Amino acid sequence: MERNNLKYTLREIVIVIIGITIAFSINKCSDNIKNKRLRKEYMLNLKSDITLDKEQLEKHSLEIEKKINICNQMIALLGNSSEENLELFGMTFELLQYESFNPENITYRTLINSGDLKLLDDFELKTAIQRHYANYEAVQDIYLKHRSLIRDYLGNYMINYADYDEFAKGKLPFLDKSRLKNIIRALTTTLNEKKEAAQVGFDSCNELLSVLEPS
Fold first, then answer.
1. Contact between 54 and 205 (Cβ < 8 Å)
2. What are phi and psi of 162, to 5 degrees?
3. Residue 34 pLDDT greater than 60, yes or no
4. φ, ψ of residue 13 in degrees (nearest 5)
5. pLDDT digits (tens, 9 = 90+) for 166-202
């Protein structure tokens, strides 16, 4: 009787162990499928985000190049004191407009904040993603430098060193052309830096997209 009870008990234990093992395997398989699907969604969203960033930076490069040309024209015109070229007024207002780089980084932030970055078991891919968004920080620093120059110097000049009644008389409203010329020169330097930064961001997008492509 005791032997039969022992056999029965052992059999029950084995059945329970097998059941737990099967359940664990099913759960693990289910988690793997879920993680694989989630990883695929992240990759698709990252590709979409970076493609949009690439388009934004490409557009910025064209706008920045246009502003650099305007700066060069203005410096030449401001150096000629014998002419009152009213086009300078419109050019100045074009330079007051600036490009802000707002990357599509919601997917990346979700990856980091949720801890889902661990789903990416490819070390090269994970490193490439992190390096790319670190590049964005450097790009945005240059963009902010340009914005500060616009607001603090050119914007200030247009408020404090311009007499708009003169423009109504067909004359340039600028009270201090030398000051304006110096500001434009500084802007030219910053715009060239900004153009290089946009190119860095653009190249970084291409590099990461090439790594993401097989994913």
1. yes
2. -140, 135
3. yes
4. -65, -45
5. 888 888 899 999 999 999 999 999 999 999 999 999 9
- Of these ranges, 3-7, 164-168, 205-209, the one predicted with the greatest mean pLDDT is 205-209
In this predicted structure, what is the pLDDT of residue 25?
56
Q: Which two tokens stand for residue 29?
A: 């398989």
Would the pLDDT of 53 be above 70?
Answer: yes
Per residue, the 3-state secondary structure of 4-15, as one string, reads: HHHHHHHHHHHH
> CA-CA-CA-CA torsion for 85, 90, 93, 98, nearest 10 degrees?
-110
CB atoms within 10 A of CB 132: 22
CA angle 185, 186, 189 (to 5 degrees): 90
Dmax (CA) for the chain in angstroms is 121
Question: What's the CA angle centered on 116, arms 118 and 114, to 5 degrees?
Answer: 135
Distance from C-alpha of 101 to C-alpha of 96, rounded to nearest angstrom: 16
Angle among Cα 164, 177, 97 to the nearest 5 degrees reads 65
Which tokens in the block code for residue 74? 């203005």
